[in-house]
Q: What sequence folds into this?
């Protein structure tokens, strides 16, 4: 099962500017929860594609309803990216490592030049959120989706912040041109219903968990 | 603008703010490597001027990533865990994610 989410945004910067800034996007005031970043592997594949694997750590914020039982920790994220210089496609994959049984978030983002304006770049963001916690996975997944929505907007704001500093004279009046979001399959629960379910789930976790449970609330690097 | 915002904005030039390594003992290596890589990425790779598969910063990366891997081990972060699924990628960047239904 799990939840799927996607959105699309346009940056008023060229693809080259985007990929240059990609390596420099932390720290920024919108991502203060990102604590460290390290490169593990990097190689040129197929002549024109740069593959990179990095590991990032961030603080693991927990939802209000989880505070009484979830230990606040840091969570590790793996980010893999492919910069294809020839086709001008930057593809990034991020996912949390460890704690996947509780909640796993996998994100894929594809950055390509805007077909209608080569000076702009389109970012297609997709996320898969799932939990294997029997009994309350739906609630955890719903929480994860809600969190991801908010966080992907913050991630874009942080990226734009860095772009504006790196390229102060570029056409950045409308740095983030548009943002379209959709969530598939349809997210039919109302917010209130969702909160109730989440609370119920929290009680359930608190009762059942003798083991240390840390909710991966921030599983995505960019979130 | 607050002081912290000013800090973040100090990104150009030598006093650019950057994130540290997850382990302080790897910081020096990390920053040396990042500086090397960013220069190569902007001036050589993006311009298509790389002639071989070698990246000039590879030797630095080897020492630096060894430091990080030791730090991960000490923190009981399993490298096997992180590479198992992602290593199955095809390398063209258009992996079909297993999670997509």
A:
């Amino acid at each position: 099962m799990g939840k799927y989410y996607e959105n699309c945004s346009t940056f008023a910067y060229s693809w080259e500017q985007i990929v240059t800034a990609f390596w420099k996007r932390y720290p920024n005031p919108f991502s203060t929860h990102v604590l460290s970043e390290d490169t593990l592997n990097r190689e040129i594949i197929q002549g024109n594609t740069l593959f990179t694997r990095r590991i990032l750590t961030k603080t693991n914020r927990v939802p209000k309803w989880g505070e009484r039982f979830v230990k606040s920790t840091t969570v590790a994220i793996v980010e893999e990216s492919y910069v294809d210089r020839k086709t001008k496609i930057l593809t990034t994959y991020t996912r949390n490592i460890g704690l996947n049984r509780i909640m796993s978030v996998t994100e894929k983002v594809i950055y390509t030049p805007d077909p209608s304006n080569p000076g702009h770049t389109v970012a297609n963001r997709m996320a898969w959120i799932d939990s294997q916690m029997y009994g309350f996975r739906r609630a955890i997944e719903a929480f994860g989706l809600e969190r991801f929505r908010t966080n992907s907007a913050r991630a874009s704001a942080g990226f734009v912040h860095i772009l504006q500093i790196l390229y102060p004279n570029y056409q950045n009046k409308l740095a983030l041109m548009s943002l379209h979001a959709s969530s598939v399959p349809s997210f039919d629960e109302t917010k209130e219903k969702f909160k109730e379910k989440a609370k119920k789930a929290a009680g359930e976790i608190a009762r059942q968990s003798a083991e240390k449970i840390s909710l991966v609330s921030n599983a995505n690097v960019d979130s | 603008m607050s002081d912290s915002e000013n800090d973040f904005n100090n990104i150009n030039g030598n006093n650019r703010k950057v994130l540290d390594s997850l382990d302080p003992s790897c910081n020096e290596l990390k920053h040396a490597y990042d500086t090397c890589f960013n220069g190569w990425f902007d001036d050589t790779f993006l311009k298509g001027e790389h002639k071989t598969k070698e990246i000039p910063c590879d030797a630095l990366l080897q020492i630096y990533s060894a430091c990080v891997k030791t730090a991960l081990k000490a923190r009981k972060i399993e490298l096997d865990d992180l590479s198992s699924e992602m290593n199955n990628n095809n390398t063209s960047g258009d992996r079909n994610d297993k999670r997509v239904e």
